[in-house]
Amino acid sequence: MEKTPEELYREREKRVLDAIALKKPDRVPVMAMFSFFPAKYSGVTIREIMYDPEKQWKAYWRTMIEFEPDMDQNPFALRYLGPLLETLDFRQLKWPGHGISGNFSYQFVEGEYMMADEYEEFLFDPTDFMIRKYWPRVFGSLGGFRKISPPRHIVTYAMGMSFGFAPFNTPEVAAGLDALKKAGERSMEIASYAASYTLEAKKAGFPMQYGGFTQAPFDTLGDYFRGTKGLMLDMYRRPKEVIRACEKLLILMRDTAVGAAAASGNPRIFIPIHKGLDGFMSMEQFHTFFWPTLKDLMVALINAGLVPCPLWEGDCTSRLSTIGEIPAGRAWYGFEATDIFRAKEILGDRVCIKGNVPLSMMATGTPEDVKAYCKKLIDIVGRDGGYILDAAASLDNAKVENVRAMFEFTKEYGVY
Amino acid sequence: MNDKLINLMADLQEEETMKMVGELIEAGSDPVTILDDARKAMELVGKRFEQCEYFIPDLMMAGEILQGISKVVKPRIKQAQVGSRKGKVLIGTVAGDIHDIGKDIVTFMLDVSGYDVLDIGIDVPAETFVEKTREFAPQVVALSGFLTLAFDSMKQTVEALERAGLRGGLKIMIGGGQMDDEVRKYVRADAYGKDAVAAVNLCREWIGG
Fold first, then answer.
1. What is the DSSP string of B95-161?
2. Are residues B161 and B126 in the same domain?
3. Which of A140, A399, B59, B195 falls 20 to 30 Å from A259 in CA-CA distance?
4. How many whole angstroms separate alpha carbon A9 and alpha carbon A31?
5. How many domains does chain A divide into?
6. Which contacts qualify for A52-58: CB closer than 8 Å, 24 or more apart?
7. A116: buried, middle or exposed (CB in 10 Å: 19+, 13-18, 0-12)?
8. Which pLDDT tens digit goes with each residue over A241-293?
9. In A107-198, where do the E strands start and end?
10. Chain A partners of B98 at a C-beta cutoff of 8 Å?
C-alpha cells in the first residue's frame, strides 16, 4: 500500500534526524540547496521568481515534488525579495533589473558599511549605531535616519523629550518612517507566504531543512559591516576591537537564531561560513578571531535545543580537528571543497557530514560522473551512517539530468 | 638594498616600516632604492604565501603597506626612472558576476611582479573582452568569476575571442571561487590558477619575467 504524506513526512524526518544523531538511517538522506535552479527548471526568469510569489511557489513546489528531497528549503525568505528590496532601496544587493544585467542570480555588494573608526560607537550601543548610521547606508529609503538623535538621549520630560522628537518632523525622517511602514507590509507578505509554504509542504510529506539563519560573528562583521578587505586589515590594525565586536555579535547571532527557530518551530539553523576557511586566514588567526565565537554560538544553540547546520564554504580541511570541538551528534556540517573523506575520518564520530558533489561537475559533467562520485561518497562517507548526500553548494546552474542522477542514484544505491 | 626595511615589510610591520621609510627619505636615501626594496619584500611575501605561511589577509596587508610606501616615495621619482614592464595581462570578471576581491588581489600581485595589467572591471560582456584585447594586445587574458553562473560567461568569452581571430598566440587563464580544472576544460581556457601566486607563475611560464 502506498504511504500517506504523513507517513512519508515522518520517514523523511527520521532519516535525517538519525543521520544527525550519527546513527544509520534506512538509507542515506539526500537533499539540495536548489537556490535559483527552479527558475531554469520551470522556464521562468530569476526576476520573476523574485517579484512574483505565485510563480515562485509553483516553480519551487514543482522542483520539490519531482525530485523528492528528504528535506527541502522554504524559498520565500531568501527569494521573494524584489518588492521589499525596492521599497527599502537596498544597497547591499544587486539583482536583475537593479545592477545585474541578464538572467543571473542576485549578488552581494562588498563594501565598508561600518568604518574602521566606528568600532567604539558600535560596541557602545549597536542598535543606535545601526539605526542612525548603518541603516541609512544599506537602505537608501532610510537615509533620513541620519538626522535623528540617539534614542538613548530621550529619557524623560526633563531630559531629551522636549526637543528630542523634532527631527521626526523633517521630510527626510518622515520619508524613512513611511518606507518602514511599507517594508512592514512586504515583510508580512513574505512571512505569510513562507508559513503557508512550510505548512503545505508538510501536508505533502516534506519537512524543511532549516527554521532559521545565523552566521559566525566574524562573518557577520566582515560580510555586512566592515567588508572583507576592511576586516582583514583590522586583524592587524585593531585586533582587540575585532574580538570585542565578535563577542558583541555573538549575542545578536544567538538571539536571532533562537527567535527564528521559535517562530518556525524548526530547530535547524543554517550557518554559511565565509571567511574562516583555509587560505582566508592563518590557523593562528582562525583560533584568535574566528573559531572562539563561532564555537560559543554553536554550543549556545545546542544548549537551547537547536541544531547548528554550518555550510563550510570553500576548503577547510586544515581546520577539521578544531571544528570537531562541539557536542557529538547535535549538528550537521555541510562541506563544499573540503576533503570530505578526510572529514569523515576526523569528524565521523562527532558530527553528521553533508555534501559535496562539486558544482563544476553538476554544471559541466555528465550523469555518469555524478553517479560515480555519489557512489564514492556513499561508500566511504556514508559508511555506518551520520551522512547526508548533497551537492557542494547552491545548484543554480546545475544540469537537470545531473540533479536527477544525484537524487535517483542516492535513493537507489544509498539504502543501508 | 636595505635588509632591515625588506624584513620589516615582509613581516607586515606596518608602523615600523612606514617610520623607517620616513627616516630614509629624511636622510636623503634614493626613493628608487626604497621602492626596489619594497618590491623585494613583496617577493618574500609571495613566497611565504606559496609556502602557506601567509594567506589572503597577509597579501592585503602587504598591499596596504606597499601603497603607503608608494604614496610617500613615488612623487619623488622622475617618470623616466620607472622600469619597463615584462608583458601585458588583461583581467576582468566575466558577464553577470560582480565579484572583485579575488580579481583585485591577482591584479595587484601581477602588477608588483612587473606585468602591465589592464583591469577592465566586473560584469564584463564578452564583446568588451574582445574589444579591449584588440586595443591592449595582451599576451595573457585572465578571466575571473566567483559563481557558477560564470562558467557559461567564461565559455562565451573564450568563444568570442576565437571568433574575433584573437585566440591564436593568446593565453587564457581562469580563476575564482567555483573554478577548477573541469571548468577550465569546459570553457577551453589554457589554465586554471587557484590563487594570485598561481596567476603570477602562469604569466612567468607564458611570457617570462
1. TT----HHHHHHHHHHHHTT-EEEE--SSB-HHHHHHHHHHH--SEEEEE--STHHHHHHHHHHHHH
2. yes
3. A140
4. 14
5. 1
6. A53/A80, A53/A189, A53/A193, A56/A80, A57/A193, A57/A197
7. middle
8. 999 999 999 999 999 999 999 999 999 999 999 999 998 999 999 999 999 99
9. 107-108
10. 94, 99-100, 107, 109
Domain of B92?
Answer: 88-207
Tens digits of residue pLDDT in A192-218? 999 999 999 999 999 999 999 999 999
A358: which chain B residues are within 8 Å (Cβ-Cβ)?
180, 182
Report pLDDT digits (tens) over B158-197: 999 999 999 999 999 999 988 999 999 999 999 999 999 9
Predicted-complex ipTM score: 0.91
Q: What tens digit of pLDDT does each residue of A108-156 get? A: 999 999 999 999 999 999 999 999 999 999 999 999 999 999 999 999 9
Residue A109, min C-alpha distance to chain B (Å)? 8
- Residue A104 in contact with partner chain B when CB distance is under 8 A: yes
B97–chain A Cβ distance below 8 A for any pair: yes
Q: Looking at the complex, does the CB of residue B152 fall below 8 Å from at least one CB of chain A?
A: yes
Q: Before A266, cis peptide (omega within 30)?
A: no
The CATH number of the domain where A395 resides is what? Answer: 3.20.20.210
Q: What is the pLDDT of residue B84?
A: 72
Would the pLDDT of B81 be above 60? no
* Backbone φ, ψ for residue A109 (5° rounding): -100, 105
Residues near A52 by Cβ (< 8 Å), separated by ≥ 6? none
Q: What's the CA gap between B78 and A256, in Å, rounded?
A: 57
**B32 and B77 assigned to the same domain:** yes
Look at residue A22 and tell me if it is in a domain.
yes
| Same domain flag for B74 and B115 | no
DSSP A241: H
- pLDDT at residue B106 greater than cutoff 90: yes
Q: Which are the contacts of B25, defined by CB distance < 8 A and separation ≥ 6?
A: B31, B34, B72, B73, B76
Q: What is the pLDDT of residue B167?
A: 95
Is A41 a residue whose pLDDT tops 80? yes
Q: Specify whether B152 is located in the same domain as B55.
A: no
Number of domains in chain B: 2
Domain finish residue from B62, B81, B100: B81
- A93-96/A107-108 β-pairing: antiparallel
A255 located within any domain: yes
The identity of residue A97, as a single letter, is G
Report the alpha-carbon distance of residue A77 to residue A187 in Å, rounded: 9
Query: What percent of chain A lies above the pLDDT cut of 90?
Result: 99
Asked if B50 and B146 sit in the same domain, the reply is no
CATH number at residue B33: 1.10.1240.10
Interface residue of A103, A282, A373 to substitute, partner B, most B CBs within 10 Å: A282
Distance CA B155, CA B140 (A): 16
Residue A122 maps to a domain = no
pTM, to two decimals: 0.95
